[in-house]
Amino acid sequence: MYKIVIDTNVFISALRSRHGASFRLLSMVGTKKFDIALSVPLILEFEAVAKRELKVLGMDSSDVDDILDYLCLAGDKRHIFYLWRPLLRDPKDDMVLELAVESESKWIVTFNKRDFRGCETFGIKLATPKEFLHLIGED
Question: Radius of gyration of the chain from Cα atoms?
């Protein structure tokens, strides 16, 4: 089974529209098509960005809490006990990479592939939501 880390931009995209690959990917969490790795810092970032954009998302705070609660229930929760920073340009991207390495995920699903240059040294591949759905035969 594939193990992935979902970048914040994909999470927010899934909340913005029910018509794209991001929403489909997020909707498949917990279906045994793939596993997602999560860490406390990543969930806190998901929460902060989503709650900052509540009006744009057309949601309220409790909606975001419910989605995050489900992800925490269905996801593979990991503890990051080492840091290799800075490796990437953005420290928040380093957080995603560290989670992928610690959880032995082979994929980071993101819209910002160029921000993760260097992750291939850890054997981690990058895919957009659409590309990953195609990879697992769900396009």
Answer: 14
